[in-house]
Amino acid sequence: MDINTAKSVLQNTFGYTDFRHQQASIISELINGADVFTLMPTGGGKSLCYQIPAIVLQGVGIVVSPLIALMKDQVDALKLQGVKAEFLNSSQDYEEQRRVEQLITSGNVDLLYVAPERLLSDYFLSLLDRVTIALFAFDEAHCVSQWGHDFRPEYQKLSIIGHRYPNTPKIALTATADMKTRDEIVQVLNLTGAKTFVHSFDRPNIQYRISEQKNSKEQLLRFINTEHEKDAGIVYCLSRKSVESTALWLTEQGKTALPYHAGLASDLKDNNQQRFLREDGIIIVATIAFGMGIDKPDVRFVAHLNLPKSIEAYYQETGRAGRDGMPANTWLAYGMQDVIKLKQMASQSDGNEQFKFITQRKIDALLGYCEVSSCRRQVLLNYFGETLAEPCGNCDNCLNPPVTWDGTSAARKALSTVYRTGQRFGVGHQIDVLTGKKTPKITSLNHDQLSTYNIGSELTAMEWQTVFRQLISMGYLAVEMDYGVLKLTEKARPLLKGECAIQLKVQKYKKPKQAQNKKK
Ligand code: ADP
Ligand code: ZN
Questions:
Q1: What is the pLDDT of residue 516?
Q2: Which 8-state DSSP code applies to residue 120?
Q3: What is the DSSP string of 188-254?
Q4: What is the ipTM of this complex?
Q5: Three-state secondary structure readout of 317-342
Q6: Whose CA is nearest to atom 15 of ligand 1?
Q7: How far apart are CA 331 and CA 308, in angstroms?
Q8: Ligand 2 centre and the CA of 102: distance in Å?
Q9: Which residues in the chain land under pLDDT 70?
Q10: d(CA 225, CA 472)
Q11: What is the pTM of this model?
């Protein structure tokens, strides 16, 4: 079959003039019976890559997706365009499921969206034995991988499909995959020999900025007021409680800010989401529950008031800014407590040792990204296996190179305090000792007798926080899971012994001096 058939579907059914990026090549592989692996950033146009082949090939195209909540919307949108699309998932009643099955067996469905557990049921597989299958599309394919940030055990069982239907074209699609994840997807879904299409992850119109958390709400307001007065944007918070308090606070400051998290009544959630999509200049304050499948092109900023859980998550969340290609800003504020919380979450998380190990490595990669003094885009793209030859000129570190100072002496004071207090306390107490506070804890433990008591008065408590944060991020200190107790690592030894030096970053609170994105 040739690509012109596909192109006429693109134009007549979907109303677009031309294929984008590698869509034409991907589609052409599939309609000629080959398997495909596609790595494309969010918003790159993955859906058409399987929708069009499913329409032009004979039989039903099976789209496996974990996003049950989005299936109905996706199918409704396709139906409006005249596509014979249906879905099957646990939200439907018995009769509705029967109706869809009937349509499938009578050959009246071109695209079927289905959750993995449904697809893999014996009942459904035997139903599929009676129909012609155009292709299998595995959306969000990183869910098969323990290395991915969104592992779902039922996705691993999809390996059955590869063995059962070796001759049916298959496509795996994901927006987030490092090399390890890629390999695992290909292996589990039996896609060896598949043609791989990797679309660059670079989003040159997005400016990446990270700053230290001081008073995050005030910092956020300043960021919005000076750079995004009337713009639509997303503010991500870690907890539902902080979503609500931040939205309320922004509203009190005269912004139109709406909360969104999984705990809100569903009509309120829908309403807030619809307003964000339809009205101009709405700020949505949300947990990460918000965003999957949201396609709003003119989001001008994404702000994080807490650390995301991995670089993948950060990339995906910030990637919701500037989909229209116009300049957009991403800004993240994080502090000591975030670092500790994330490290604790990793060690406490359910899951086997391997999973914990992976989670830790991912957090380390994220912290490394946050603390880096060189071009952020280079680090980010490198994480996804790409190289950017030159610094980007459009991240905070490029625009305003961080100033570093010789932190050797400060770091040694900090590390010896951890040592002298017996590696049994958290950051707060260490700083109290260093700055010579007379707290009840210090007095009762006689920590005012230690040789490191009050030896750190050259820095403020706030400055000590940044020293500790950097020492943790750089792996000189480990955080114990339960109480945030600090321990020295092997790496700390040479520094303590004076065998090596360390450069620390001076924290800056101003915005980059020549922000290219400044609109108007
Ligand atoms: P992804 O799944 O990769 O995040 P989508 O498939 O949702 O991306 O596509 C993102 C947006 O781009 C959608 O609004 C889609 O309609 C649009 N789009 C995709 N392909 C084309 C094309 N060839 N021409 C114009 N718009 C396109
Ligand atoms: Zn840069």
A1: 44
A2: T
A3: HTT-TTPEEEE-----TTEEEEEEE-SSHHHHHHHHHHHH-TT--EEEE-SSHHHHHHHHHHHHHTT
A4: 0.96
A5: HHCCCCCCCCCEEEEEEECHHHHHHH
A6: 45
A7: 12
A8: 55
A9: 147-149, 177, 293, 349-350, 481-482, 507-520
A10: 33
A11: 0.70
